[in-house]
Design goal:
seven-stranded mixed β-sheet, Rossmann fold
Amino acid sequence: MPCNCCTITDKTFGESDARHNLRRYRMRGPAGQTSELLKSIRSEGLKDATLIDVGGGIGAIHHELLEDTVSSATHVDASSAYLRAAEGEAARRGHAGRVEFIHADFSDVASGLPPADIVTLDRVVCCYTDFRGLLAAAAGRSKHLLAMTYPREAWYTRVAIRITDWVQWLRRDPFRVFVHPVAQMDTVLRSNGMRRVSLKRLFVWEVALYSRNWAG
């Protein structure tokens, strides 16, 4: 069920942004950090896997992985505009029957979702104040892999995000962006049975892949 978070996100990520991002994706393919995230998942060699894409936007991750890695996907997003764009693109690609679209804050609905082989969070952790709760919920739904991207702990990233948040304040938009401590995020995932198997640093983003650590 849509929540207050969804109301905030709908205001920030509306129809024009969704259309723009979908056009760019069709022209250029996945963004740089998304491409690296996809590469890290594919390196594990999974086939016919299931996917939960958290905050998947226009759906680039499941559009790509449904071609060679996953058999079905669940796309949970707090932006109704982005969900509509993703659903339309899935239909255009012939994937409509293989993706379930849920308009919600993932943290609110995670416990009711069946676990999936892969959980992805591309540029999502930085949108949450309670990153610990989000990552614990995501790890709890992952049977095998968790892949995520997040801003690097760099001075220039912090400055850029402060400027972004200042602009949001001027616009009276309550949505904010955060640079969370990487070590603390890693601790949360390790305490939920995951271990990091790869890390790729780009200029702005880091791309981390975690695997279920059955040995604890």
